[in-house]
Amino acid sequence: MAYHKPTDIDGFITQMAKADMRIKALLAEDLVLYLNDSENSIECVDLGLLVDGLIPWMIGSHFKIAQRALEAFTELIVRLGQDFNAYTSTILPHVLDRLGDSRDTVREKAQLLLHKLMECRCVSPQSLLDKLTNLMQSKSKDIRSTLSEVMVLLFEEWPTKALEKNCILLRDALRKGIADADSDARKHSRCAFWNFRRHFPEIADSLYGSLDPATQRTLEKERDSIGTNAGLRSISAVDTAAAQRARARAQYSSMARMKISSGSASLQGQYAQQARAKKISAVSATPQQPPTPERRIRSRSGVSQSQPTSRSTSPSNKLRDNFGIPSIYKQTGTIPKENIRNTSLISKLPRNESNERNAIWITPSKCLWH
To answer: What is the Rg, in whole angstroms, of the alpha carbon atoms belonging to the chain?
Structure first.
């Protein structure tokens, strides 16, 4: 059968029932191009007939035709806006089914369609969340992963007031997504968590506290890198309160470092004083040993050893006073050479009966021990 390109929406509706797959593929491609051009009119006898004709294409086995059907619905949503609400309940279950398609291109088109439904407010949060939470239990990891991505878009597109009635439901969905067996589902759920926290910080913090430490650290890393992920807005850019808290923490940290650096000298001085006090107390507690005669002689400062006659405790004075021995020192402090070898003086001295050895001083620098 020959194919004639339609020039209006009614012409597309007339040919959509044809069974030839080749014609369906050409018709679907031309329909997307027609709707994409804003100068083309979408007025027709019954727009519902167009929607009813696109649904079999969307759920069919031919992935190219299904992809074109999703694109056609997306273009209709852009053109109609909230007027598309009348058809949302009809197509939404089928769009969600396509989220688990084996083809990446089909899943992406289904996700884009959901995004447009939320962006144009063509679906209520309650109706969408009811279906999303049911699909979170799906055995298909592709469906769970894509639904986690939809959660990110949901928190970005809808205001807090539209979500507050379902905040507990959203929290439970996030909890399941963060613990999902699929790595992509966990990653998208972590991104969705920080968007969720922007709306409900107390509930998000309670959920965060219930997670294990390893999951908490992974969430923190995801927050640091969330600004570089495609399709996601940076949390720090939209969460003003979080940015202010971060600046305050940085200021307090800087002030603490300044205080530590400025007080280091005084701290060192205090430590030095304490060390000196401990040392003085330790020295005072140690019993002093009586100095030896040699130390007594050498420890007296200010007196020259070459002038023993200037001291009352010089060896010559002790010999003279105790034993009546004349001093071998001259007034000038010199010692006659002949007297140095004279050791007869030693024999005249009485021995001490104790075990201690007595020192007999001959010169200020030499002594005899016996």
So the answer is: 51
| Two structure tokens written together for 301 | 């400062």
State how far the alpha carbon of 120 is from the alpha carbons of 51, 75, 84, 124, 332, in Å: 18, 12, 9, 11, 121
Distance CA 209, CA 212 (A): 8
At 352 the three-state DSSP class reads coil
**Would you mind telling me the total number of residues written for the chain in this entry?**
370
pLDDT of res. 35: 94
Please give the pLDDT value at position 227: 52
Angstrom CA distances, 55 to 58, 62, 118, stand at 5, 13, 20
358: left (phi over 0), alpha (psi -120 to 50) or beta: beta
Residue 98 structure tokens = 């396509």
**Average pLDDT along the chain:** 73
DSSP reduced 3-state for 301: coil
One-letter identity of residue 312: S
Report the distance separating Cα 50 and Cα 43, nearest Å: 11
Provide the total of helices (H) and of strands (E) in the chain, helices listed first: 20, 2
CA–CA dist 4, 12 (Å, integer): 10
Q: Torsion angle, CA of 202/208/209/212, rounded to 10 degrees?
A: 170
Helix (H), strand (E) at residue 369: strand 366-369
Of 123, 203, 129, the residue nearest 163 (C-alpha): 129
Residue 230 phi/psi, 5-degree rounding, is -70, 140
Q: In the chain, which residues have pLDDT < 70?
A: 1, 19, 226-370
Q: What is the pLDDT of residue 277?
A: 59
pLDDT digits (tens, 9 = 90+) for 183-201: 999 999 999 999 999 999 9
Whole-angstrom Cα distance, residue 318 to residue 223?
92
Question: pTM score, two decimals?
Answer: 0.56
Q: What angle do CA 199, 205, 206 make, to 5 degrees?
A: 115
Whole-angstrom Cα distance, residue 188 to residue 111?
14
| Tokens at 206, concatenated | 């309670």
User: Where do we find the tokens 């014609």?
Assistant: 23
Q: Give whole-number Cα distances, 155 to 163, 171, 183, 219, in Å.
A: 8, 12, 21, 17
